[in-house]
Amino acid sequence: MKKCLAVAVTAALMGSGTAAAHVSEAEFTELKNQFATLAQRLSVLEAENQQLREQGTESVAQLTSAREDLLGAQEDLVVVKQQNLDTSWAERLSVTGDFRYRYEEIDVENADTRSRSRIRARSEMVVRLPDDVQLGVGLATGSGNDPVSANQTLGDGNGSKEISLDLAYAKWRPIESAYLEAGKFKNPLFIPQKTGLLWDGDWRPEGLNAAWRGEHFFATGLMNWLESDSKNSNEEVFWGLQGGLVFDVAGAKLTTAVGYFDIPIKGNESYYNEKFYGNSFVVDDGVEVYEYDYQLLELSAQLDMMILDLPLSFYGDYVQNQDPDDYNTGWAVGTQLGKAKGHGTWQVAYEYQDLEADGVLGLLSDSDFAGGGTDGKGSKLSGAYGVNEQWNLGVTWYIANEAGEKNLKDKGGALDYDRVMLDTSFKY
Q1: Is 35 strand, coil or helix?
Q2: Distance CA 133, CA 89 (A)
């Protein structure tokens, strides 16, 4: 621009020689000064123009660099999203389980002492789905048909042991305090200090259950199929309802519950192993069948407190079958001090139980007490020590149980029954 303007001015001056002859010296000097000023201004404008060009180049470079950074960030975001997709399944999946090794001795009056080693292994996988839905599947050792035991006895020439479906359920929680569950699931009922008066700890109901838990009140409804196939003569479903209260008593927590369970199996055959597990039966057309229905009214309570920085519990459970006129009740009372959970922690517990022949459905009650099932009474003493958070050592002693108060009354009376179990157990 500067060069073009200078050429134009020079040409004008040279082309105007005739005119210059008529211009005074002062006017010509003034014209040269103006030209010098204009030339200086052109130099300044050229410098500014060059600076603007350089800034423009830098801006383009910065924009290019920013664009490349943005593209890189977008690529990183895609990678992160893919990683989240890859790990989201693992984050929604949890696996828990336990393993127990047990040595036990069983001493029954008029019989040789029996000793054996047994194992129990259980594993459960839970997947959390959208809309507060959970799916659970669990496997366990033990016979596929035994409703109250996952134990496997070691031996049999080291033959392979059975693995069975222990759990298979779907649980939907529409609100935080309530849920609906279907399939084969863990016992949802309140059981004071895990006593086995009505239900063995390994029992897995099959059917439906719904529950609501509030701060001070809870309620559970249960429908359980003993047999769902109509082609079988003993097709049967039982139902139950339980409600309870939880409140403070002078700094201690008191939980109380009342339940009713209707198990209409009168006239049905045995459901497992052709045994009635202490319950009364009669012969109908040459077939042994249950003599009574089991319309169970249960009252239970547990009081929890702290003493000398140790948890202390007192509990009781009472049940009556409304159908038979006699041998129709059961009760248990007990206490536990301490809690074996973590290195150096420990617990001791004592329970006394008296369960008459038709007080509950023997098929589903404690499989260890007085030989299992109903028609027994006596004491249970137990203790445990925590090696670490996931490993416990334990002992359980069924002391001077009496088995067969009703069923053996015409055969010399109840038998003395003692059982000692030594356990080492692990959880994960």
Answers
A1: helix
A2: 14
In the numeric block, which tokens belong to residue 339?
């809690």
- Listed in sequence order, the residues at least 6 apart from 270 whose beta carbon sits closer than 8 Å to its beta carbon are 276, 281, 288, 290
Judged by DSSP in three states, 375 sits in: coil
Cβ pair 357, 406 in contact under 8 A? yes
- Grouped pLDDT means (10 residues each) for the chain, 428 residues: 45 43 64 70 70 61 67 72 67 94 97 97 96 97 88 94 96 97 98 97 97 97 97 95 96 97 97 96 96 98 96 98 98 98 97 98 97 97 98 97 94 95 98
Task: Return d(Cα 268, Cα 322) in angstroms, integer.
Answer: 18
Per-residue confidence (pLDDT) for residue 91, from 0 to 100: 82
Report the chain's C-alpha Rg in angstroms: 43
Q: Note whether 402 and 417 are within 8 A (CB).
A: yes
Which amino acid, one-letter code, is at 207? G
Exposed (0-12), middle (13-18) or buried (19+): which is 231, by Cβ within 10 Å? Answer: exposed
At 62, the amino acid letter reads Q
Contact of 405 with 356, CB cutoff 8 Å: yes
Residue 233 has φ and ψ, to the nearest 5°, of: -70, -20
Residues forming beta bridges with residue 217, ordered by sequence position: 245
Distance in angstroms between the alpha carbons of the first and the last residue of the chain: 84
What is the residue-wise DSSP string for 66-88? Answer: HHHHHHHHHHHHHHHHHHHHHHH
What dihedral angle (degrees, nearest 10) is formed by the CA atoms of 37, 41, 47, 51?
160
Query: What values do phi and psi take at 345, rounded to 5?
Result: -85, 160
Beta bridge partners of 169: 136, 183
- Looking at residue 21, its pLDDT comes to 43
Spatial separation of the C-alpha atoms in residues 191 and 205, rounded to whole Å: 14
- Whether 386 and 413 have beta carbons less than 8 Å apart is answered as no
